[in-house]
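cron nightly-structures :: item 1 of 1
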Amino acid sequence: MTNYENTIQPWRFSSFRLRHSFVIRHSCFGILSRLLLVLLVALCVSCSGKRIAKANVDQVTEGMSKKQVESILGPPTSLSTEDFVIMKKTTYIYRQGKDTVTIVFKDDKVQSKDSTLSN
């Protein structure tokens, strides 16, 4: 063996070193991706909290646009639209457990609301 072959050459790695390095990087990526997934799920659950609360429904007033209502209550659970010749009627229905909130829009403005919410 020559003196050159015994020197440390940083560009040459043994197959063990390469495998070990890959395993460490791969396992770190797996741990980080799982942690990120758990944080994302926790964030979604906290953001989708109880938006259909009496206080939020009370903020919805006659004449509000659909966008304003959705900013308070979020997107509706279901909706229906009826297009008449002289007006357009849309009904937003929000359901959360046993509670239901119904908001009726006439020409895209709140006309009425009904709720089964108690305090």
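cron nightly-structures :: done
The beta strands are 78-83, 88-96, 99-106, 109-115.
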